[in-house]
Amino acid sequence: MDGIEYIFRPKSVAMIGASPRKGTIGREILHNVIINEFNGKVFPVNPKYGVIHSIKCYSTILDVPDAVDLAIIAIPRDGVPDVAEKCGQKGVRGIVVISAGFKEVGGRGIELEDRLIEICRRYRMRMIGPNCFGVVNTDPDISLNCTFGKTGALPGRVGFISQSGALGEAIMNHAHQLGLGFSMVASIGNKADISANNILDFWKDDPRTEVILLYLENFGNPRNFTKIAREITRTKPIVAVKAGRTSQGAKAASSHTGALAELDVGVDALFDQCGVMRVSSVEELFDVASALANQPIPRGKRVAIVSNAGGPALLATDALVGMGMEVAPYTGETKRQLKRALSGQGTVNNPLDLVAGAGGKKFKAALKVVKEDKNYDSIMTIFVPPVTIDQLEVASSILEGVKDTDKMVLACFMGTEEGSDAVNFLKQNRIPVYQFPEAIAKTLYLIDSYRQWLERPLGKFRSFSVNRAAAQKILEGALETSEGAIIGEKALDVLAAYGIPVTKNEIVSSEKDAVSAAERIGFPVVLKVNTPVILHKTEIGGVKVDLRTPREVKTAFASLKKKITASKRGTARGREKFSVFVQEMVSGGIETVIGMTTDPSFGPLLMFGLGGIYVEILKDVSFGINPLNDNDADEMIKNLKSYPLLTGFRGTEPVDMPTLKESLLRLSQLVSDFDVISEVDINPFIACPKKGDSKAVDARFIVKKL
C-alpha cells in the first residue's frame, strides 16, 4: 500500500510537540492516543520535558531508542521541516503534520510546504497534512486516535475523509450523537503528499470499511478519482460533500457549451459517472451515512409510510413524490390485514395515519403487516409524541414491528430531543432516526439513485477507426492563424474525419457556382455566409434555408452578398472575397447540440442537449467527464428533460439513437486525441428517425496555443 499502512496501522507512534499543559494540541493528541488504548508503543518528544503523562519524554526523535512507524508533528510551522528531516534520518515511515500556516496562507508557507514534500520524497516517508486534524483507526487491534478532538470515534463501518481540519471536532461530535461509528477517519488538510485518492485506494480492500464519506474542497487528480471511485462504488457506497464552486461559469465563453457549463457541472458529471452520491451539506452527508451503515439498500423506490400524524405524513409524501419516489396505496391482502389489525381504524391508505392517540400497540400491528408486503421496498415511520404516550414504548414497538424485515426502515421522531431514551434505543438497534420527514425523503432518493447506478451494466470504452491525420492537418492549420477558430466546411471536415456524419456541402463565390453546387448536392439546400468569419450567423441574418429551385438559390445568394457587403463597407474585411456555404437541407428530425468545453479542474467536459438557436434559453443539457464509455453516453442522452422527444412522443417516430450515441463517443475520442481543442459546438446535430439521415449541420472548434 505504498507506506500508507504505517499511518493507519502503526506499531509505534512518536508525538512530536507533546505537552503536559492542558488545552494545548500536543497534550490533547497524546492524551487521546493514551486513553484510546493504542496497541503499540508511544514516545512523547519535546526537549523541554523529561516525562509527560507518566511516560518518558525524548528531546528529539533521534533519541528514541526503538523504531518509529508514525510521527505526529504539532509544533510551530517554521520548525516542521527540520523535524521532518530528523524523522527521515530516524527511518520513520509516516508523518501526520497537524501544524498549520503552509500553502493555505501563501508566501513563506508555500516554500515551507515545498521543502516538506522534498524531504518526504527523499526519505520515502508518507505524509498526511499539513494543516489537518489527525487520523483515527478504531480497529481493536490498533485503537489509534491521534486527533486533538474532545470526542472520540465510535467503532463502526464508515470511513471518513475530510479536507477540512476545522470541521474535525464538529464532525466527530455529531457522529457520536448519531451513534454513527467509524472504521477510520483521515483529515488530509493540504494534501501535500497523501490525497483522498490514495486513501480511497487504501480503503478499497479494507474489510472494516463498508461505507465511505468525503468532505472535499478541491480535486487533486479527477481522472484518477474517476478510476478509483468507479471500482469502489460497485461494492462500497461513497457519499460526498464537495464545497466551493469552479470559476468556469464566470469567464466569457465563445461557445454554447462553454456558456452552459456554469457553476460546478464538472463535479456533478464526475460523481454521476462514478456512482458517488453527492449531498449539499454535512448534515445530509450523515443522514445518508446513517441509513447506509445500518440498513440494507432498498430494491426499488416504493415507500410505505406509517405515521400517527396526518400533516407530517403528507409532507413526507409530497417530498418523496417530488423526488421521483413512489408512494403507492395499500391494496389487496395488505389493506384487509391492516383493517383487521387496526380495529376501529377508519381509512387505510398509504400514508397510513394511525391518528394522534396511537401508541406502540398500533405501530407494531401496522408495521407487522406492512413489512410483509412485497410491493414496498422501504418503510418510513413517523411519530409525533403526544404527552400521554410513552415514547420509549413506541420505539420498542416499532423495532418489534419491523423485526427480521429486509426492507430499509427509517424513523422520524418529530419534536423529540436528539438524546432521548426512545431515539437512542432505535439508534442502538440500527434504526436511524431523523427530525423531519423531508430528510428521510432526500436520503431515500439519493440511495435509490445509487441503486440505479449499481444496476447499470459496466460501460465499455470504444475505439473507432478514424482519419486522425486529416483532422490533425486542419487543427495545425488553425494554430498557425490568429483566429483560433475552425468553422464551416473545415469544422465539418474534422468531424467527418472522425466518422461523425455531416451534411454534403460546398463553398462557392458566385451565383452560378452556387446553383451548380446545389444541383450536385440535391435540392432543397441551405446557403450560409462563409466570409467574413461569423460565429453566430443566424444573428445577422446570414442563413437562407429550404431553397428548392435554382432561382431561389440565386436570389438568396444576392441577398446575402448585399447584406454582408453593406455591413463590412469601410472595414479591413471589406476587401475579402465574398463566399457562401452551400449545404444539403436536413429536415424531419430533432435539433440537438453536441459539444465540449474545458474545465480548469476536470479537463474536457462533453455536453449533449436540445439544440438550435434556443439552446442557451432552454438549457436542457447534460454533461459528462471525458473520456466517455458507452454507458456514459447513454446516461447523458437519457438525463435530458426532453428525452421523450427523442424516443417518440405522441405518435412521432423515435430518432436513430445508435447514431446519436456513437457520435458522442466519436467526439470523445477526437477530444482525447487532440489537447489543442478547448471548445467544440456541433449545433445543430439533427437527429432523424431513419438510419443514415442524422447529420451535423454546423460546427465550430476553438483551439488553444500550446
Describe the structure.
- The protein is 37% helix and 21% strand.
- It is an alpha/beta fold.
- The strands form six sheets. It has a seven-stranded mixed sheet, sandwiched between helices.
- Strand 28 and strand 29 (695-696) form a beta hairpin.
- The chain is flat.
- The two termini are 36 Å apart.
Question: What are the SSEs and their pairings?
Answer:
Blueprint: H1 5-8, E1 12-16, H2 25-35, E2 41-45, E3 51-52, E4 55-56, E5 70-73, H3 80-90, E6 94-97, H4 108-123, E7 126-128, E8 134-137, E9 144-147, E10 155-162, H5 168-178, E11 182-187, H6 196-203, E12 211-216, H7 222-232, E13 238-242, H8 256-260, H9 265-274, E14 277-279, H10 282-294, E15 303-307, H11 310-322, H12 332-341, E16 352-353, H13 360-370, E17 378-383, H14 391-401, E18 408-413, H15 421-428, E19 433-434, H16 437-455, H17 468-479, E20 485-487, H18 488-497, E21 505-508, H19 511-521, E22 525-529, E23 543-547, H20 550-567, E24 580-584, E25 590-599, E26 603-610, H21 615-618, E27 621-625, H22 630-638, H23 643-647, H24 657-673, E28 677-687, E29 695-696, E30 699-703
Parallel strand pairs: 1-2, 1-5, 5-6, 6-7, 10-11, 10-12, 12-13, 13-14, 15-16, 15-17, 17-18, 18-19
Antiparallel strand pairs: 3-4, 8-9, 8-11, 20-30, 21-24, 22-23, 22-24, 25-26, 25-28, 26-27, 28-29, 28-30
Helix pairs in contact: 3-4, 6-7, 7-9, 10-16, 11-16, 12-13, 13-14, 14-15, 17-18, 19-20, 22-24
The N- and C-terminal alpha carbons lie at a distance of 36 Å
CATH topology of the domain at 5-209: Rossmann fold
In the CATH hierarchy, what is the superfamily of the domain at 5-209?
Answer: NAD(P)-binding Rossmann-like Domain
Q: Taking all residues together, what is the mean pLDDT?
A: 89
**Cα gyration radius (Å):** 32 Å
Total strands? 30
The side-by-side strand order for the widest beta sheet comes to 9-8-11-10-12-13-14
What percent strand?
15-25%
Instruction: List unreliable stretches of 5+ residues.
Output: 246-259, 569-573
User: What characterizes the major β-sheet?
Assistant: 7 strands, mixed
Specify the overall morphology: flat
CATH class of the domain at 5-209: Alpha Beta
Portion of residues within helices: 25-40%
In DSSP terms (H or I, runs of 4 or more residues), the helix count works out at 24
The CATH architecture of the domain at 5-209 is: 3-Layer(aba) Sandwich
Structural class, by secondary structure, is alpha/beta
